[in-house]
Structure formats: C-alpha cells, structure tokens
Design goal:
alpha+beta; three-stranded antiparallel sheet; 13 strands
Length: 207
C-alpha cells in the first residue's frame, strides 16, 4: 500500500522529495539486506519535512523532477547498490525497493496516469508549428524521432520554450490521435513519449 500510494502520487505530481545533508541524500541501514543502505524518499515536501532533522545533519529538502529521478537519481543509487526506502516513521521504513525496479514502476505509473487522464478528457495534446508537430530525437537511438504528447494542456503549454516557443497547442480528439497520429508514427518508424516532462529519462515507446 505504501509503495502503490507513493507511485501514484509521484506519477500525478511529476515530483518526489529527499532530504540532503552533509553526507548527501539521507539514508538508513537496510532492514532487509545486511551491509546495504536505504536512501529515503517521499512523495511530497510535507511528508519529508517532519523527519528532516532526524535523518541527517544540516538538512535541506531536495525536490526531484520525475524525469531527473529516472535519468540521474535512481541510476546513481543503483550504481552505489543503495535501496529506496518509503514510509519512514522515525525508526524504520515501511517498504524497500531496488532503484531499477522503482524506475520501471514509476514509468508504468506515469503511463497509467496519462491513459486515465486522456480517457477522461477524450483528448491528447501536442505542440505543432508550420513544419508539423514538435518532435524529439530518441534518447536511445539518434536516428529515431519521438513525438511528445500530453494528457493535460497545462503540461504541454509548459514546454513552449526554446525551439518550440512559437508553436501552437493542438487538442487531438482521442480517437483521431489513436487512429491517425499513432498510425502515422508507426508507419514512419517513430516513437511516442506520453507525458513528456523534459530532460532525459522520459518514457519512450512504440505507438
């Protein structure tokens, strides 16, 4: 329950929180694996703040974007063989996760959130200019393009910057997006990035 509520909350907000002190991200000895450490994370600043003084010296709350966590934080913790601790109650954590497992679960939770919101709105939003829709180069293959799309118009509008600053927000009826846009991506050999948040670590998938 702790794990699932954390994943759902982070997928909704696109952020998660840790407490950073003199020794980096706050951590505790693992309750499952002798000799390993568990780094503490929370789904909101309000959840993290009460424990800040208890978990490290000279603490400060650190906010991570979901894309930042997927591209940098979780891979870094995995390299150091750290675990992720959720639901810290002042003594121990309620759940421990492997960082790689958590990354996959976060991607799936974000995708589920995107699908639910798109169905509720019956629309998917893209950015488009005179030359067509905004596209990205895949993070894994430089010869493949990726279409970013969003289930919330505000999330799409937040990306109107840099080379996309003069583009327009397009509301695609859900069935049109599925029947036309995804078919076009498939025929072109392109990928789709649902709920693109910017930066590395974004979910990329076959249409």
């Amino acid at each position: 329950a702790v794990r699932d509520s954390f994943l759902a909350a982070v997928a909704r907000s696109g952020t998660l929180f840790g407490v950073v002190g003199e020794d980096g991200l706050a951590r505790r000895p693992s309750v499952k694996f002798r000799g390993r450490e568990t780094s503490l994370l929370w789904a909101s600043e309000d959840e993290a703040s009460p424990w800040a003084q208890a978990v490290t010296v000279h603490p400060r709350i650190r906010r991570y974007r979901l894309s930042e966590a997927l591209s940098d934080l979780l891979p870094g913790l995995a390299r150091h063989r750290r675990l992720i601790g959720l639901g810290f109650d002042g003594m121990r954590v309620a759940a421990e996760l492997d960082p790689q497992d958590m990354a996959e679960r976060l991607r799936l939770a974000a995708l589920e959130q995107f699908v639910e919101a798109a169905i509720a709105r019956q629309a998917v939003f893209t950015l488009e200019g005179a030359a067509g829709p905004a596209m990205l180069v895949s993070q894994t293959r430089s010869d493949i393009l990726v279409l970013p799309c969003w289930s919330e118009p505000g999330d799409a509008l937040a990306r109107l910057e840099g080379p996309w600053r003069d583009m327009m927000l397009i509301e695609n009826p859900l069935q049109d997006f599925i029947n036309r846009r995804l078919s076009w991506l498939q025929l072109s050999g392109y990928l789709v990035a649902p709920g693109y948040l910017g930066g590395p670590g974004a979910l990329e998938m076959q249409p």
